[in-house]
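Entry: DsrE family protein
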Amino acid sequence: MTKQVSDSIFIIWSSSDPEVAHNLALMYGHNAMSQNWWKRVRFIIWGPSAKLTAEDIDIQIKIKEMMASGVDVWACRACSENYDVSDELESLGINVLFVGKPVTEMLKSGWRQLTF
């Protein structure tokens, strides 16, 4: 396993609970990069968190801060289409794509994973 992959983490955030967003997922995602805990951080909005992101301005601000610190933010296209929020997420600069295959590839290549 290469150093770059072993020092890479992806975070799956699926909870619709704003408390989980503010006090776990977004906090860790931002600090993981800004505090140099990991060399590469990918934050994946998957499931009900897509709808919450589209509706909550405070979450949108925190996601933009994460992206400014170097976190790569993705959202599941299937989920965002189910919630009819793809345009809102893309307007925030979030990469909206079908994530099943890329997540599988990250797992198989040795990325670390955390889920909220």
